[in-house]
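Help wanted!
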Amino acid sequence: MATLSVCRPPVGGFSFENCKRNAVLENEVSKLGCNLPAARKTGTTICGVVFKDGIVLGADTRATEGMVVADKNCSKIHYISPNIYCCGAGTAADTEMTTQIISSNLELHSLSTGRLPRVATANRMLKQMLFRYQGYIGAALVLGGVDCMGPHLYSIYPHGSTDKLPYVTMGSGSLAAMAVFEDRYKPDMEEEEAKQLVRDAIAAGIFNDLGSGSNVDLCVIMKGKVDYLRPHDEANKKGVRTGEYKYKRGTTGVLSKTVTPLDLDVVEETVQTMDTS
Amino acid sequence: NMLEESGPEWLSEEVKTGTTIIAIEYNGGVVLGSDSRVSAGASVVNRVMNKLSPLHDKIYCALSGSAADAQTIAEIVNYQLDVHSAEIGEDPQVRSAATLVKNISYKYKEELSAHLIVAGWDRREGGQVFATLNGLLTRQPFAVGGSGSSYVYGFVDAEYRKGMTKEECQKFVVNTLTLAMSRDGSSGGVAYIVSIDEHSTEEKVILGNKLPTFYDQ
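Answered by r_m:
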């Protein structure tokens, strides 16, 4: 029996076709008994603070893949524009690509306006993109910078909500870092005081959260100047072995020795030059 | 198993403004009030968020529900009202603002989970409060919303009287917020009050220790 089907008009908004495909693939793969590779997460501690002359951003440097540390010294403070930097927590690929996309769009926007980009602009662009993807892009960001209106600090959540605050923390170690901030934050701190506070907050995350570790990276943004301190504090140096653990030659007794030379002839020799100009 | 999966669940959970919001109309203007707590799961991610968002000079909306959805709706309607008021060449009506919010809330009601109360003052009808829950549009003398509102329906129904003055309305709002914040785990922090009338739009913050005390305190 023939059925009338009305042609559906194109629906606006995000197309979730690929998500359906991914769900089907995951089902098939699990039927075969294996797992799809887990997305590498930066189980992280990131934070930011507004001080007298600008912003201090801080991050740890551990990237995890499940329960294994995939990268002991990854960089979580991403460049957005000469006066704006962004720390990223959540899925590593998502934070990396999202910040790069917005950095590129912001550069074009800045060329179009002829002005230094504003932090509020970067915030709008990031939140509108993350909202459009309804939380499927797992990027939790701490955005900070100094523009013509002064220093600004935002926290941006994967679903697209943002908060503008004088001090923010994100990531799995955020509760540990926030505890340090709530205790010692004061408005209008000096640069050294602010750097020490951020360093201590990240250290609290590194030592009390399993998903954060290794070193402390800092980024100090002031009007006309950016100090990207990587690493600022090597909190976890790899230990030096105290003894030699190689077995000396002769430890294992050799009973007999047979040498068989392999008779190989050169059959064909070709040289392929690579154009490396 | 001592090692849990890296990252607590609230990292992936949506950020909600488990909230108490209220708006009330009086002869000559409106008073809006909100708490300031934003939660993600069991964690408070912002304890000082101002949930009273300006849509226009004399029109505000109170946000509740999903933080991302509510913020986005407020920002979109703010933009649409800017365009609309430039087109008509004068300040927009509160009903227009509420209609714009209602249109978004209704069209995307399956996808969104936010409730905005729209309140303000315009020249034609004076102070007005509109509720836009689930995509309806209704004008009310007062409206409460958010998770904390369930605890204070009895209080507002008993205490509301017609013809209150601006100061009485402000007191009514502060008392309601205080009672809700002390009973609802998802509401707390400080109280934000906005009073809008013909002459001015006044924003006030009342810190936790300056809130009125009731029986159990």
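OP: Thanks! One thing I noticed: The longest helix of chain A spans residues 92-113.
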